[in-house]
Amino acid sequence: DGGITQSPKYLFRKEGQNVTLSCEQNLNHDAMYWYRQDPGQGLRLIYYSQIVNDFQKGDIAEGYSVSREKKESFPLTVTSAQKNPTAFYLCASSIGRGGLEQYFGPGTRLTVT
Amino acid sequence: QKEVEQNSGPLSVPEGAIASLNCTYSDRGSQSFFWYRQYSGKSPELIMFIYSNGDKEDGRFTAQLNKASQYVSLLIRDSQPSDSATYLCAVKSFVGGTYKYIFGTGTRLKVLA
């Protein structure tokens, strides 16, 4: 069964703690993306990666970090430097560097108190 | 700043009617256009994409693109209560030397039984 998986579905953390969100895909897609969605707002791009071992900052990268050591995996770390980390985090992937359709994983809802 | 604009709604239509969702975009060079459906608490699901001017039909869904007017729309025929969701318009644009997907904030559709 091909697709994008994200884990966990819900995550609760105390302020000041780093947390890593998992994203795995078995679609053989080259490009992967992390977005953040807040109520009433559009999706905002955090980081993206076009190929293994390369990634670029998106529009709101401050307080986040990523790695792309394998084609299938693109984990996102939310650090304590991120001022408002509570949000719905969405991982997506697309074929190729200029890939067309973008597909989303089920998302991780992070709550930081 | 490349932008994608949508009316936030809610757009209410009776069951069986045609729902018309609209989206405008600012980047005249955009080539690819996407419609996603997002149920409350879930991730976006790709339902239609269109690259050429004109209409593209898929079952009850029709995407319409007018590049001269920088306008893309989604028609849902024979609307069902299960179509009630937020519909996100996305545009793929060349920004800062790479392709990025720019999302609108979505239109909430309510289909009344």
Q: What gross morphology of chain A would you assign?
A: globular
Mean pLDDT of chain B: 94
Structural class of chain A: mainly beta
Uncertain runs of chain A are: none
* Elements of chain B, N to C (H/E): EEEEEEEEEEE
Could you provide a short overview of the structure?
Chain A is an all-beta fold and 113 residues long. Chain A has no helices and 11 strands.
What do you see in this structure?
The complex is a heterodimer of chains A (113) and B (113). Chain A has strands at residues 4-7, 10-13, 19-25, 31-37, 44-51, 54-57, 64-66, 76-78, 87-94, 102-104, 108-112. Chain A starts with a strand and ends with a strand. Chain A is globular and about 35 Å long. Chain A has no helices and eleven strands. In chain A, the strands form two sheets. In chain A, strands 2, 4, 5, 6, 9, 10 and 11 form a seven-stranded mixed sheet that branches. Helices cover 0% and strands 50% of the residues of chain A. Chain A has 113 residues and is mainly beta. Chain B has 113 residues and is an all-beta fold. Chain B has no helices and eleven strands. In chain B, strands 2, 4, 5, 9, 10 and 11 form a six-stranded mixed sheet that branches. Chain B has a five-stranded antiparallel sheet with strand order 1-3-8-7-6, with no helix packed on it. The N and C termini of chain B lie far apart (40 Å). The A-B interface holds A 33, 40-43, 45, 48, 50, 56, 58, 90, 97-107 and B 4, 8, 32, 34, 36, 42-46, 49, 88, 90, 92, 98-101, 103-106.
Descriptive tags:
A: mainly beta; four-stranded antiparallel beta sheet; 11 strands; globular; B: 113 residues; six-stranded mixed beta sheet; five-stranded antiparallel beta sheet; 0% helix
Which helices and strands occur, and which strands form pairs?
The complex is a heterodimer of chains A (113) and B (113).
Chain A: E1 4-7, E2 10-13, E3 19-25, E4 31-37, E5 44-51, E6 54-57, E7 64-66, E8 76-78, E9 87-94, E10 102-104, E11 108-112
Parallel strand pairs in A: 2-11
Antiparallel strand pairs in A: 1-3, 3-8, 4-5, 4-9, 5-6, 7-8, 9-10, 9-11
Chain B: E1 4-5, E2 11-14, E3 19-25, E4 32-38, E5 45-50, E6 54-58, E7 61-66, E8 71-76, E9 85-95, E10 98-103, E11 107-112
Parallel strand pairs in B: 2-11
Antiparallel strand pairs in B: 1-3, 3-8, 4-5, 4-9, 6-7, 7-8, 9-10, 9-11
